[in-house]
Amino acid sequence: MKISIIGTGYVGTVTGTCFAHRGNDVICVDVDPGRINKINQGIPPIYEEGLEELLKEHAGKNLEATADYDYAITNSDISFICVPTPTDASGKIDLRFIREASRSIGERLKNKSSYHVVVVKSTVVPETTEKVVTPILEQASGKKAGKDFGVGMNPEFLREGKAVYDFMNPDRIVVGADDPMAGEVIRNLYAGYTCPILTADTKTAEMIKYVSNAFLATKISFSNEVGNICKLLGIDTYKVMEGVGLDARISPHFLRSGLGFGGSCFPKDVKALVGKASEVDYEPILLKTVLEVNERQPLIALRLLKKHVPDLNGKKIAVLGLAFKNDTDDIRESRAIPLIGMLLAEGAVVTAYDPMASEHMKNVYPNISYFSNAGDALDGADACLIATEWGEFGKLNGEFGRMKSKIVIDGRRVVNPDIKGITYEGICW
Ligand code: UDX
User: Fold this and answer.
1) How far apart are CA 390 and CA 327, in angstroms?
2) Which of 44, 161, 177, 241 could form a disulfide with 182 if both were Cys (CB 3.0 to 4.6 A apart)?
3) 195 catalytic, yes or no?
């Protein structure tokens, strides 16, 4: 099929490249000339495992990037809107880019004689496609959705770092469409996938995406709640959750307790769902608590640290791990951010190390000391806190010998607690 992808951020680049790899002709549209040039040269504008190889294979062949909407819409049968949907300070979703993309596509549909389907892939709150995208497309094109053109919603469930793998090996595909023809076109695009393909209307598809993320976030906050209780009872919560997760109805995934969840999706999407519920006059107390538990976990880590170092003023505290999870340089909503904030507020001198994310954290905390390896960050420290589940932290050993006082507060259960000479505390186990 001939596909246009609007927006070459994380979702757009992965989606476009993977669709090209599946044999489609793909045109990516962006306003940023830098991104366009990179894609046309086969250089991904973002890092994602396996993406560069695929982009190199398809750029200049069945994948190209342009700023020209006319060209992209004329030469495609289906357009995916993959623009960002940030949240404002109150947690409400900002649909500015969705509106702009819808208007730009709609204006080009005016003169298009063949049937075209517009699909929202960005994460948007329920009813956005139906009540925002479709009316803008109709107004800008002067045509009728469901008759002259189709509209759909096809959420992505990609994990950062594993997005290419997830695109090629999904657990399920959700096709949202408010008219049968649009649904059929989108389903055809996924012909050949062996996973279940669920068809629904657009607002149900939008809700599935939010609820998936909210449920996974709930599993984590639930595990943190259990972990906090287990800690006080002297019970190993990882053993507990291993036993719990063996129940097929529960599954063993997303039951790791620790500092909580971060990233560009879970906190934002749970907040947006809470906001949407409030709009329709419902107070989602469970979802609000999921967020509260998540906010509290760094505080629990701090309390535990203060059990060993009661007065942090002037004390050197090493924070190992700044990214929101391992294998990424992304610090969005990283639990290390509130943790470092609290340490600084207590007067601690913070040293930090992360294998990939230090440069980004320098924008948030320019005045703490960053090191290029864990040993140097630990040198002379009064205690250390592990904030990210990087595999290499599991191999640390002799490095702890460089600390003034070998107190290790592990927020991710990665350090070996049996290392000789260290005082080890897991935050909720
Ligand atoms: C997530 C979803 O997994 C993905 O389907 C969706 O499309 C986007 O959001 P991502 O943000 O890349 O993906 O990260 P993920 O691997 O899910 O981890 C999110 C956060 O949860 C991380 O901060 C991680 O440390 C934390 N986490 C994860 C836990 O604290 N415990 C767990 O058991 C699992």
Assistant:
1) 7
2) 177
3) no
